C-alpha cells in the first residue's frame, strides 16, 4: 500500500473486523457440527478463539489469535480441558500466554499518534499558508517555478484540512462507532481526503517534471505549459476519484468507504499513486545523474560553475520535495509492523508540508531578499530609516 495517511486501516477497526471474520467462520463450523455426536464438549466461540468439538478428558491447544499480532508479537498458545461439566477456563490466560494487555487495542498509543499528527498538520498548515501569501503578494516572486510551488503548498494545506475534517467526522464523540459508520458526511470526508492526498502526489510529480526540464533545457514555460501542469496536478486525480466513487457505490458500498483491505477497487487510487512515486524516484535519480555530469571539472566553465554547485547543494533538499522517502514503504506489505507504519506515515508525514515550506520558501535567497527589501521600504516610508542591504542566505534553492 502506498504511504498515504488515509490508506491504513485503523488498527482498532482492523482488530474488530478480523474478529468478526473469524467469528463468522467459527459459527459456520459450529452449524456444521450440529448433526454430529452430542458427547463431550461442543464447539464454541469465546470472543477471540474458536474451540472445536472435544471428548471428555481431552485437552485442546490453540495458538494465540492472529489478531493479537497487530499489537504484540504473540507466539504462545492457550489450552482448555473438556470436562464432564463442560469447558474449563483457558490456561494460561490470554493476556499471559499471548503477551497482550487486557486493554486491547492500545488506546494510549493511538491517542498519542493522533495528538502528534494533529500538531504536525496544524503547524504545517499555518506555515504553508504564510508561505503561499508571501509568494502571492510579492510581484517579483511571481514566476513559473513559484506557481508550481504554490500549487504544491496548497495540496499540503488541503490534505491537512481533509485529515481534520475526516477525524472530526469519524471521531466526533466516544459514542460514535467509526468502524461501522456509514453516512453521507462520512463518505464525503473520505472522498475529499483521498482527492487531496492524490493531488499532493501528482503535484510532487509536476515538481519533478519541472525540475528535470530546467536541467535538460532552457525552454520557456508558457501559460499553456502551466495549464498542462495544472491539469495533471488537479484534473487527473478527479478522474480516478470519480471512477473509484462509482465502483464503491455500485459494487462495494460498505461502511464509510475508508476500509480498503482486500478491495480490488482500491487499486483505482492506489495504482496511479504507486506509479507517480516510481516515476518521481526515477526523475530524482535522473537529476542526480545530470548534476554529476555537469559538475565534472573538465566540463564546467568558469561562468556557470557556481550555478551548478548551487544546484548540487539544492539536490540534497529534493528528497522531501519529491517525496522520495515514500519509496521505502511503498512496496512493504499492508500488515508490516502497524505501529511503526502509523508512527512514520502519520506522524512524520504530517510535518512534510512544514519542511517543504521552510526549504523552498523561507530559506530561499530570492524570497528572503524580496521580503527584506519590502521591510526596508516600509521602514523608510514610516520612519525615514534606511537599513543595510541584506546579505542573503546560504541555503539558497534556485528551484
From TrEMBL:
<dbReference type="Pfam" id="PF00002">
    <property type="entry name" value="7tm_2"/>
</dbReference>
<keyword id="KW-0472">Membrane</keyword>
<keyword id="KW-0297">G-protein coupled receptor</keyword>
<dbReference type="GO" id="GO:0040018">
    <property type="term" value="P:positive regulation of multicellular organism growth"/>
</dbReference>
<comment type="function">
    <text>Receptor for GRF, coupled to G proteins which activate adenylyl cyclase. Stimulates somatotroph cell growth, growth hormone gene transcription and growth hormone secretion.</text>
</comment>
<dbReference type="InterPro" id="IPR001879">
    <property type="entry name" value="GPCR_2_extracellular_dom"/>
</dbReference>
<keyword id="KW-1015">Disulfide bond</keyword>
<dbReference type="GO" id="GO:0016520">
    <property type="term" value="F:growth hormone-releasing hormone receptor activity"/>
</dbReference>
<comment type="similarity">
    <text>Belongs to the G-protein coupled receptor 2 family.</text>
</comment>
<feature type="transmembrane region" description="Helical">
    <location>
        <begin position="313"/>
        <end position="332"/>
    </location>
</feature>
<dbReference type="GO" id="GO:0017046">
    <property type="term" value="F:peptide hormone binding"/>
</dbReference>
<keyword id="KW-0325">Glycoprotein</keyword>
<dbReference type="GO" id="GO:0005886">
    <property type="term" value="C:plasma membrane"/>
</dbReference>
<dbReference type="InterPro" id="IPR001771">
    <property type="entry name" value="GPCR_2_VIP_rcpt_1"/>
</dbReference>
<dbReference type="GO" id="GO:0032868">
    <property type="term" value="P:response to insulin"/>
</dbReference>
<keyword id="KW-0675">Receptor</keyword>
<dbReference type="GO" id="GO:0019838">
    <property type="term" value="F:growth factor binding"/>
</dbReference>
<dbReference type="GO" id="GO:0007189">
    <property type="term" value="P:adenylate cyclase-activating G protein-coupled receptor signaling pathway"/>
</dbReference>
<dbReference type="InterPro" id="IPR036445">
    <property type="entry name" value="GPCR_2_extracell_dom_sf"/>
</dbReference>
<dbReference type="GO" id="GO:0004999">
    <property type="term" value="F:vasoactive intestinal polypeptide receptor activity"/>
</dbReference>
<feature type="transmembrane region" description="Helical">
    <location>
        <begin position="188"/>
        <end position="213"/>
    </location>
</feature>
<keyword id="KW-0812">Transmembrane</keyword>
<feature type="transmembrane region" description="Helical">
    <location>
        <begin position="265"/>
        <end position="292"/>
    </location>
</feature>
<dbReference type="InterPro" id="IPR050332">
    <property type="entry name" value="GPCR_2"/>
</dbReference>
<dbReference type="InterPro" id="IPR000832">
    <property type="entry name" value="GPCR_2_secretin-like"/>
</dbReference>
<keyword id="KW-1133">Transmembrane helix</keyword>
<feature type="transmembrane region" description="Helical">
    <location>
        <begin position="115"/>
        <end position="138"/>
    </location>
</feature>
<dbReference type="GO" id="GO:0008284">
    <property type="term" value="P:positive regulation of cell population proliferation"/>
</dbReference>
<keyword id="KW-1003">Cell membrane</keyword>
<dbReference type="InterPro" id="IPR001571">
    <property type="entry name" value="GPCR_2_VIP_rcpt"/>
</dbReference>
<protein>
    <recommendedName>
        <fullName>Growth hormone-releasing hormone receptor</fullName>
    </recommendedName>
</protein>
<dbReference type="GO" id="GO:0007166">
    <property type="term" value="P:cell surface receptor signaling pathway"/>
</dbReference>
<keyword id="KW-0807">Transducer</keyword>
<feature type="domain" description="G-protein coupled receptors family 2 profile 2">
    <location>
        <begin position="113"/>
        <end position="364"/>
    </location>
</feature>
<dbReference type="InterPro" id="IPR017983">
    <property type="entry name" value="GPCR_2_secretin-like_CS"/>
</dbReference>
<dbReference type="InterPro" id="IPR017981">
    <property type="entry name" value="GPCR_2-like_7TM"/>
</dbReference>
<feature type="transmembrane region" description="Helical">
    <location>
        <begin position="338"/>
        <end position="363"/>
    </location>
</feature>
<keyword id="KW-0732">Signal</keyword>
<feature type="domain" description="G-protein coupled receptors family 2 profile 1">
    <location>
        <begin position="25"/>
        <end position="102"/>
    </location>
</feature>
<feature type="transmembrane region" description="Helical">
    <location>
        <begin position="225"/>
        <end position="245"/>
    </location>
</feature>
<dbReference type="GO" id="GO:0008528">
    <property type="term" value="F:G protein-coupled peptide receptor activity"/>
</dbReference>
<dbReference type="Pfam" id="PF02793">
    <property type="entry name" value="HRM"/>
</dbReference>
Amino acid at each position: 500500500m502506498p504511504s498515504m495517511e488515509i490508506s491504513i486501516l485503523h488498527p482498532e477497526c482492523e482488530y474488530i473486523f478480523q474478529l468478526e471474520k473469524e467469528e463468522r467462520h467459527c459459527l459456520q463450523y459450529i452449524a456444521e457440527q450440529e448433526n454430529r455426536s452430542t458427547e463431550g464438549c461442543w464447539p464454541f466461540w469465546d470472543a477471540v478463539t474458536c474451540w472445536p468439538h472435544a471428548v471428555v478428558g481431552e485437552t485442546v491447544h490453540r495458538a494465540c489469535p492472529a489478531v493479537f499480532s497487530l499489537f504484540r508479537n504473540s507466539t504462545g498458545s492457550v489450552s482448555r480441558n473438556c470436562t464432564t461439566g463442560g469447558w474449563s477456563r483457558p490456561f494460561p490466560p490470554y493476556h499471559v500466554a499471548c503477551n497482550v494487555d487486557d486493554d486491547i487495542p492500545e488506546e494510549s498509543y493511538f491517542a498519542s499518534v493522533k495528538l502528534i499528527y494533529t500538531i504536525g498538520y496544524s503547524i504545517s498548515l499555518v506555515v504553508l499558508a504564510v508561505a503561499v501569501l508571501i509568494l502571492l503578494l510579492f510581484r517579483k516572486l511571481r514566476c513559473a517555478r513559484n506557481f508550481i510551488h504554490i500549487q504544491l503548498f496548497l495540496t499540503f494545506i488541503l490534505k491537512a484540512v481533509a485529515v481534520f475534517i475526516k477525524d472530526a467526522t469519524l471521531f466526533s464523540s466516544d459514542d460514535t462507532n467509526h468502524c461501522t459508520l456509514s453516512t453521507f458526511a462520512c463518505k464525503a470526508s473520505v472522498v475529499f481526503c483521498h482527492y487531496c492526498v492524490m493531488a499532493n502526489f501528482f503535484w510532487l510529480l509536476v515538481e519533478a517534471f519541472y525540475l528535470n526540464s530546467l536541467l535538460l533545457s532552457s525552454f520557456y514555460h508558457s501559460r499553456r505549459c502551466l495549464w498542462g501542469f495544472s491539469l495533471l496536478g488537479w484534473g487527473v486525480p478527479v478522474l480516478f476519484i470519480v471512477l473509484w466513487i462509482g465502483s464503491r457505490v455500485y459494487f462495494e458500498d460498505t461502511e464509510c468507504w475508508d476500509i480498503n483491505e482486500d478491495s480490488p477497487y482500491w487499486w483505482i487510487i492506489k495504482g496511479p499513486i504507486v506509479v507517480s512515486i516510481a516515476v518521481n524516484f526515477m526523475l530524482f535519480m535522473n537529476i542526480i545523474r545530470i548534476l554529476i555530469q555537469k559538475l565534472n571539472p573538465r566540463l564546467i566553465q568558469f561562468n556557470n560553475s557556481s550555478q551548478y554547485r548551487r544546484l548540487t547543494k539544492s539536490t540534497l533538499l529534493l528528497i522531501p520535495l519529491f517525496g522520495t522517502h515514500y519509496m521505502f514503504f511503498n512496496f512493504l506489505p499492508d500488515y508490516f509492523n502497524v505501529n511503526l507504519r502509523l508512527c512514520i506515515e502519520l506522524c512524520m508525514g504530517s510535518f512534510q508540508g512544514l519542511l517543504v515550506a521552510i526549504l523552498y520558501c523561507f530559506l530561499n535567497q530570492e524570497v528572503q531578499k524580496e521580503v527584506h527589501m519590502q521591510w526596508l521600504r516600509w521602514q523608510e516610508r514610516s520612519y525615514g530609516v534606511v537599513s543595510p542591504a541584506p546579505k542573503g542566505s546560504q541555503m539558497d534553492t534556485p528551484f
